[in-house]
Design goal:
The complex is a heterodimer of chains A (324) and B (369). Chain A has one domain: ABC transporter involved in vitamin B12 uptake, BtuC (Orthogonal Bundle), CATH 1.10.3470. In chain A, 73% of the residues lie in helices and 2% in strands. A two-stranded antiparallel sheet of chain A has the order 1-2. In chain A, helix 2 crosses helix 11. With 369 residues, chain B is mainly alpha-helical. Chain B has a single domain, classed as ABC transporter involved in vitamin B12 uptake, BtuC, CATH 1.10.3470. In chain B, strands 1-2 form a two-stranded antiparallel sheet. Chain B is globular, with a radius of gyration of 21 Å. Chain B starts with 21 loop residues before the first helix and ends in a 5-residue tail after the last helix.
């Protein structure tokens, strides 16, 4: 049932985009590129939440993981003078934060929400304390145009003329979709998230599966964090992840815990912001800028209220596993 | 266990290890936060040391500037007042199994509401004070109720909604303070000063807001333990299914608790606006809501214990600025110390590794396995 209205919405949006493209090629392309840039970190961060929740762990600490890895990525790149090293620092930090969260939420069986909140508060504290002004990146990230594909109308300039992180995000989504539903790892992960007792009975190590998945998901948060500071912003400010880690959770829910679904949800989310900014810039609508800033957050709440009850989370999510 | 919604929050205010006896549990309840604070200061000291400053000097500066003279005491009390309220707001939520991360937003919305009610009307103080305070609380309660209703009736996680409502509140008050509620003929985005009839006075060196905060904490210490409604709150928090079988409306309790929680955070914002700042300025109260989470967990969801926890945080926050002025250390070191405190309190690090020896001794000396 839900799928039907999701498809209807998708078709309406696609027709709208095509129509707008026939009217104003340049502006449509720029709005779509903007939307994609908004969506990319949300997509990767939503994959973090997705891998965790599919394994039965609510990760409310994505925000903190993003913040720490954005911090490590930026200052790593600024200090070593290498974007690649910076990115690796970011991913490494994400993995460490993932392991720290897994230690609390999985190994110690602490309340998952409290563990995540602690991650967020620690990340805010550490990144504010060690923040230094006046650092710059050694270079800006390269834009890689994909031959032939980039010449396609509309999708060419929007999709195939981007930084490497954008392609990485798309590959991650497809990869996870395949991994989750077509591999043994995916089957075990879903089993652990849906019915850990049965999984345990059939010989899957529930605690180990959860620990590994939550840690690896932290590495994904590292990719998203590094994207934010190294590619998207080219800088780091205190608290500059601005709630994306939480929005990502909403996107994951809106995408029904499905990688491709979350990808579509994030694009929709990005598109609303792209359109709103463009309308504001063109002075079509005169809304105070504060209301434009509010939009993603209001939209998150509305989306959650709308889809609640229509989608079902993994059954064992949020509960530390206790052997019977 | 329950099929509806995420698992309940385990607060740690019930003794996880009942075989050790109730008295031991109580001792642990007090000892863990204290040990955690000391550990956090120790680790924070290492950070300070690596910044090239003697940690003992830094901590002396921190505490002397907060507790060195009557001026310091006054500032500590002013700083602690909203923290007691946001701590209580989180405590009330935790009791019902709700994690109210939105105390910040509720406080901010209430602060501008109280400021508006304070400057826009000219009433005798006896009416104006409760009116402005009440209006602020109402704003906070309404803001939190959005999350409460969505949680109760749509099963939307209050954690995400309250966080989103924080961000919306920041943008909303920024708009209100820069457009409709703005002080006229003046470049800054801020409301006019509240009328004298809506100011919480400072008697001698005791701000009346601080006294109100103490009374409200004591009231909730009584309310949560001695009243029927408080019993409902606790029952829903401990086991919503059992509560349902006992005839308690879980939905109603969730909405009510969220509204009470928001009203408490709102009271913090209103009291600070009316007693300390005198008007609303965006950004002046940043971080108070998040400190509330630390305070509530440090107090192990006990309303009366929020008082010492909030005062501790108040001292650190008051001293933080002098720290930068006198030693050059970033005031954010306080954030790190508070985060570490929270980690040590909530994670079983302290209880597991420090109390393990104690527990072993207990179990050897006769207590059954």
């Amino acid at each position: 049932m839900r799928a039907r209205w999701a498809w209807t919405l998708t078709v309406i949006i696609l027709v709208g985009i095509l129509f707008s493209y026939t009217q104003d090629e340049l502006r449509t392309t720029s709005v779509l590129s903007f939307s994609l840039r908004v969506a990319i970190p949300l997509i990767i961060a939503a994959m973090v939440g997705l891998v965790c929740e599919r394994s039965g762990v609510i990760n409310i600490g994505i925000e903190g993981q993003l913040l720490m890895s954005a911090f490590a990525g930026f200052f790593g790149a600024a200090l070593t003078g290498s974007l690649i090293l910076g990115t690796l620092f970011g991913i490494g930090t994400g993995l460490i934060m993932g392991a720290v969260f897994a230690t609390g939420a999985v190994a110690w069986k602490m309340d998952q929400i409290i563990s995540g909140t602690i991650i967020n508060i620690i990340a805010t504290g550490l990144t504010s304390f060690f923040y230094a002004q006046g650092k710059t990146l050694p270079a800006s990230t390269p834009v890689v145009a994909i031959p032939y594909l980039k010449d396609l109308p509309l999708v060419g300039p929007v999709l195939f003329n981007n930084g490497l992180f954008t392609y990485a995000a798309i590959i991650i989504v497809i990869f996870l979709q395949i991994m989750l539903f077509l591999t043994i790892w995916g089957m075990r992960t879903r089993a652990v998230g849906e019915n850990p007792s049965s999984a345990d009975t059939s010989g899957i190590n529930v605690q180990r599966t959860r620990f590994i998945n939550v840690t690896l998901a932290g590495g994904l948060a590292g990719v998203a964090g590094a994207y934010l500071s190294i590619e998207a912003a080219g800088t780091f400010e205190r608290g500059f992840t601005a709630g994306r880690g939480f929005t990502a959770l909403a996107i994951m829910i809106f995408g029904a815990w499905n990688p491709v679904g979350a990808f579509a949800a994030a694009l929709f989310f990005g598109l609303t912001q792209g359109v709103a900014s463009q309308l504001q810039a063109d002075e079509v609508i005169d809304i105070p800028p504060q209301f434009i800033n509010m939009l993603p957050f209001v939209l998150t709440i509305v989306l959650l209220a709308v889809v609640a009850g229509r989608v079902r989370p993994p059954a064992a999510v949020g509960k530390p596993y206790e052997k019977d | 266990m329950s099929s509806d919604g995420p698992a309940q929050t385990d607060l740690g205010f019930t003794d996880p290890n009942p075989t050790l006896g109730p008295k031991y549990g109580r001792v642990k309840g007090v000892a863990i936060p204290i040990v955690s604070v000391f550990l956090a200061f120790a680790v924070g000291g290492i950070l300070i040391y690596f910044q090239g400053v003697n940690p003992l000097t830094a901590y002396r500066v921190l505490f002397e500037s907060a507790l060195g003279d009557s001026d310091g005491y006054l500032r500590v009390m002013q700083k602690s007042t909203p923290l007691i309220f946001t701590g209580l707001a989180v405590v009330v939520g935790l009791r019902v199994g709700l994690f109210n991360i939105g105390a910040q937003g509720q406080l901010t919305v209430a602060a501008i509401g109280a400021a508006w009610a304070g400057y826009n009307f000219d009433l005798p103080a006896i009416i104006h004070l409760p009116f402005a305070l009440g209006f602020g609380m109402l704003c906070g309660a309404a803001w939190a109720s959005i999350a409460g209703v969505l949680r109760a009736y749509r099963n939307v996680s209050e954690v995400i909604t309250t966080i989103m409502l924080n961000s919306i509140a920041i943008a909303l008050v920024d708009y209100l303070a820069s457009r409709p509620f703005k002080e006229p003929d003046q470049p800054l985005s801020r409301t006019p000063l509240v009328s004298d009839s809506a100011v919480f006075a400072t008697f001698g060196s005791i701000p009346s807001g601080f006294v109100i905060a103490l009374i409200v904490s004591l009231f909730f210490g009584w309310f949560l333990i001695r009243t029927t409604e408080g019993f409902r709150f606790n029952t829903v928090g401990l086991n919503p299914n059992a509560a349902r079988y006992a005839g308690i409306s879980v939905k109603r309790t969730v909405v009510l608790a969220m509204a009470v929680s928001g009203a408490l955070a709102g009271m913090g914002g209103a009291v600070e606006t009316m007693g300390v700042v005198g008007r609303f300025e965006p950004g002046f109260n940043a971080g108070l809501g998040f400190d509330g989470i630390t305070i509530a967990l440090l107090a192990r969801a006990n309303p009366i214990a929020t008082i010492p926890a909030a005062i501790l945080v108040g001292i650190l926050r008051t001293g933080a600025n002098s720290l930068q002025f006198e030693t050059g250390i970033e005031p954010e070191v306080v954030d790190v110390i508070l985060a570490l405190t929270l980690l040590f309190v909530a994670a079983p690090i302290v209880s597991r590794y420090i109390f393990r020896i104690n527990a072993k001794r207990k179990s050897k000396s006769g207590a059954k396995s």
